[in-house]
Amino acid sequence: MHLSDEWEALVGWPLKIARRQLAKDRTWLRTLPLVHTSPWRPETFSYVHNDEDAKASFETMDDTLAFVGHTHVPAIWKMHRQNLRQAVPGEAPVQLHQGSRYIVNVGSVGQPRDDNPRACYAVYDSERCVVWFRRVAYDIPKAQERFLNAGLVSRSASRLAAGE
Q1: Which domains are seen in the chain, by residue range?
Q2: What is the helix, strand, coil percentage profile of the chain, to 5?
Q3: pLDDT at 93
Q4: DSSP state of 97
Q5: In degrees, to the nearest 5, what angle opens at C-alpha 148 toward C-alphas 147 and 151?
Q6: Residues near 105 by beta carbon (within 8 Å), at least 6 away in sequence
Q7: Which residues of the chain have pLDDT under 70?
Q8: What is the pLDDT of residue 111?
């Protein structure tokens, strides 16, 4: 498979499907403090994988809180003064403290990639400044079937079972 064909199968076609499904909500989504990639270079689809990526993102952020995705791996980076810390969220709520800044990777409902096949999402309570990460089991064989029926590559479907 040619590189551009592989990119189209793995990324291009799924993006077209998502864009079509979110068409009516795109204006509202643009008002939220979220990016799919990073606050640092969203136009290049850069990832927030590690502390270096998070630091670059914090340097370009005006807001105290940003929600990101793209890696499909839940994580939280906290910047307090010049101290940067990363945490892998668990079941307990995460309290966000005034005076600190945060980048929250919400994980992935559709394709978790942290070796946990359950869908992962985050809930943010803006009044209490708390983030909860939730894991939900779903019908993976049915999701795999839908992937294949949509014309997506079989690798994208098969890795759902392992969360990779």
Answers
A1: 1-31 (no CATH), 33-153 (3.60.21.10)
A2: 35, 25, 40
A3: 94
A4: P
A5: 95
A6: 48, 67, 68, 69, 70, 71, 73, 74, 75, 76
A7: 1-15, 17-18, 21-22, 24-26, 29, 33-45
A8: 83
